[in-house]
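Q: I'm teaching a short session on how sequence maps to structure, and I want students to see two examples side by side rather than one. Could you give me a first protein with its sequence written out and its structure tokens following it? Keep the formatting plain so it prints cleanly on a handout.
A: Of course. Example one:
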Amino acid sequence: MPAAISTIIMMTTITTIEGASVARLLTWLSPAFPTGGFAYSHGIEWVVEAGEITDGETLQGWLTDVLTLGAVRSDAILLRQACRPGADFVALAELAAAAVPARERRAETLNQGAAFVRAAQPWGCPVLPDPVAYPIAVGAMAGAHGIEEEVACVAFLQAATANLISAAVRLVPLGQSTGLAVLAALETVILRVAAGTRAATLDDLGGAVFRSDLAAMRHETQYTRLFRS
């Protein structure tokens, strides 16, 4: 076989493999994938009732803090650790469950993790402990299917941000255009968080968004609730 033809075939195969990986990742992080993410607001429901998120500007400020200093950043670190060869899923699962600051937030990540594992079975899911936090389940699947860690991390952060914006759009309420404008404005924040977690270790887990943690706790006794967190 001529070298040129061989090279073309090899490049086509690589492109096909990479394309399949991206397609899988898009499916797993799609709002249509049955993880139940639409039912959780990450405490935003209480924040809206308290009058602290009222428009696109206040939503963007809140999410910037959650992304850079809160649980979403820690989730990105956990995902990266689970994505790497030789990851200790049991230890990661125990740490992730222990590090969650509120009962509803714990249920949020563990319920979504369990739902993700069940839904991902048609693609072949690695053996994971039960319960397992959502970012660990996603990271383990990405690693098992050869999806680049950086791509998985950015996609996860974008999907998490989009889900929280969707909750706010329904709760405030905000228009879809405002929600999309906030998502567009947060792209640089998402990329910055992804870059900042690249060399992070488990010692870097943690945050400083106490208001978000308190919101999650207060949501547990909120009188009227549409969301489970």
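Q: Perfect. Now a second example for contrast.
A: Example two:
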Amino acid sequence: MREVRPRLPIHYLLIGIVAIYAIALVGIPTAAIIGGALNKGIAALVMAVTAPDVIHAFEVTVLLAVGAGAFNLVAGLLLAWVLVRHEFRGKQLLIALVDAPFVISPVIIGAVLIIVFGRGGWLSIPNVPIAFALPGMMIAVIIVTMPFVAREVMPVLAALGPEQEEGAFTLGAGRWYTFRRIVLPELRIALLYGLALTFSRALGEFGAVIVVGGAIQGLTETATVYIFRALDDRNTVGAYGAAIILAGLSVILLNVIERLNRRRLSRHTATSGAASE
């Protein structure tokens, strides 16, 4: 049984410092946003967040998040499989490219996409709008969120090892059957965790989409871009109302991520205990 030690004064001091830090970092800004949103009453807030341009901005945001999540769920799994299970020249370069969105500014990614897909760009297609349109924004969000699924799956896949697959092959199982019944269940939590991170990151993306999308109201405006425009137009109720909705979605996603992380840690602990026995 774990021994419970009495807390020393230094412990209470550290707890107080952490509490003050959390209140200053999260509590005060949250209270300010809620107060600004309710500044003119609930009716004005409801009217502001149900305006057609706000609804369209959230539709675009969710569309980009779902599209990027679906694409990176498959692409991230393929990347993780190649990087863990295969050795080839240029592997370290590919790993660096996967991690590049962590260190490259999203604004730079948006600017590069304009150079590549804009009018007269290297890969521009006549009469097919990519830059300053939804396709370019989708590519930007996919690039920005690319590392999350791959990076969550890679350590799990490396720890899994090929032994179980080889055993299934010797028993006559096909590659697809082996992957679907043996490998994929082990990767399920890591895939869901990476997908939740991807969706959360896509919801809050601003730099890349405002550059490559052009922030065209009613067409390429996302929720974050709308908040920026609303603040610039002195529409504080609309800006704070949209911010509250985004914050609520983020809290839900954080709760999902935390639950998935607990399940992953408990599974890892159970596996480590079984292996030690």
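Q: What should students look for in example two?
A: Point them to this: The longest helix spans residues 236-276. Also worth mentioning: The radius of gyration is 23 Å.
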